[in-house]
Amino acid sequence: MTIDQEKLGAAIRDVRKRRKMTQAELAAEAGLASNSVAILERGERGFSMKTLNALAKALRVPASCLTVLGTDAPTGDPALANMLRRTQNLIATLIAAEERTPRGRPRPKAIQAD
Predict the structure, then answer these.
(1) pTM: predicted TM-score of the whole model, two decimal places
(2) Considering the domain boundaries, does residue 107 fall inside one?
(3) Cβ atoms within 10 A of the Cβ of 62, count?
(4) How far apart are alpha carbons 110 and 87 in whole angstroms?
(5) In principle, which of 13, 43, 70, 83 could form an S-S bond with 6, CB 3.0–4.6 Å?
(6) Paired strand residues for 71
(7) How many domains does the chain have?
């Protein structure tokens, strides 16, 4: 199993949209240049753990959840592929169920940022 840069970018885009954030808002909250989010979401370049952690914090989701969402299913091991798919579905369901809360309010316990 490997983390796919395009799939990870798509996961970040999906979470950002669910949080009703623009790319500019996410970039500002993560301390990135304004065009960086668009480039990362398209999978045009990789990024550091520092950037991944900053994005995860701004999105209010654990970085580990983003990496799982960005992981390709393994070939040759149906049980492992099924486990990954089910884990990805669970994470996506939890993210979808969480409402965006304004800063300063307690975060829902379903997903806590790293």
Answers:
(1) 0.79
(2) no
(3) 17
(4) 15
(5) 43
(6) 3
(7) 1
